[in-house]
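Hallway conversation turned thread

IA: we were arguing at lunch whether anyone had actually written out mannose-1-phosphate guanylyltransferase end to end. Turns out nobody had. So, for the record, here is the sequence (474 residues) and right after it the structure tokens. Reply here if something looks off.
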Amino acid sequence: MNIKIVPVILSGGTGSRLWPVSRQSYPKQFWPLLNEHSLIQDTAIRGQKMGLQSPIVICNAEHRFIVAEQLRDVGISDARIVLEPVGRNSAPAIAAAAFLVAETDPDAILWIMAADAAITDEEQLGLSLEAAVRAAKGGRIVTFGMQPTRAETGYGYIERGAEIPGMPGVHTVSRFIEKPSAERAADFLSAGTYLWNSGMFVARASVLLSETKTFEPDIFLNVGEAVAKRTSDMDFERLDPESFSNSPEISVDYAIAERTALAAVVAGNFGWSDIGSWDSLWDLSSKDTDGNAVFGDVFLDRTRNCYVRSDGGIVATVTGVENLIVIVTQDAVMVTHRDCAQDVKKIVTRLAAEGRKEAAEHNRNYRPWGFYESLTHGNRFHVKRIMVKPQQKLSLQKHFHRAEHWVVVAGTALVTRGTEQLLIRENESIYLPLGALHRLENPGKIPLVLIEVQSGPYLGEDDIVRIEDDYQRE
């Protein structure tokens, strides 16, 4: 393809139906659920394989370092990572990408997609994309409709109209349909003219902006201003918070796709799934002779048609277990029947309503320098495991309510304590009294791992006063 095509990857979802693996702090797009790559890595690699432009990734500020690191890990170091100050659904995010691209090339074509979808036949995807690009060059806003293979109630549908003259494989859109009941989904499947709505779009930047201005002028005005007033933050582009927050919160389907006269659809058959539930992951996963998909430390005994995943301790299923989903993480266990996989989201809602941090946060918390995870805690103490990547360091900081004791178990730590700088090696330790100015750094070539014991009357993460920070965090 000789026209400029820019992949736009939307990475704002939380994937609550894949709880407890997918949570707000580390959602499903960052997990390797199907192969050695995470979903966002697979999404970015597709564009790279096709020789397209470097991607634009729209995400929230909390995930920016995760996105950057995961893309670097697969050799993509030139992505434009754009930070939303608040979530406003897909229409404002897409408008921001269109404004950015239009600054240098209004006729460039955007290929808009979610960060968390799976595609199994990339050759067929390429053919569908070629048809969509031809239509987009002609001024159409094109979506991909997937050929249904079952009466799915978890997807929206598109009713396909007539083929557009001069655009083979491209059809008009008769209507978009919300997620249907089981009975309606069965009718759609038998009719043969209904397609699953993939949520992917292909269109020129200028066309998207023109239709946004027509149908959602407040989005056009406020997002345009947010892009014009954006600031640079290391390798990230921050949209202006006030302007972007003033934008309406609406999906691109409601804002444009269902209202424009330019909508078109390309029917695809390239093994797409939005991986919206554990049951859909079971469908996509390799299985044993009894129909079980297994990940992690799992033992099965006379078990059939189950999805069993352990990211924590050993999981065993015994005699007569069938059609279940069993998920184990370090701090949560979830069990449901495969037919009820869509209901996992309801549990997350209940956990959040009761103020349970497990609804949104993992036990392991990722930071730009590495991660930390809680090992145990009680009255006036908290024990953590901390990993610092080579050549990285934490902020220069102090605490008002806690003292800390660090024990190095792997690697070497360079510790700033007040005016001192001390090299702490494996099996050595250091004490940091309450109020002491301190910093932890890994000067070596292997990960630094230490055990941190906090003690004091208040041990919250907000008891950190940063004096200096390489990552420009507050």
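OS: looked through it. The chain has three domains: 5-273, 278-353, 364-468.
IA: good, adding that to the notes. The two ends are 44 Å apart (CA to CA).
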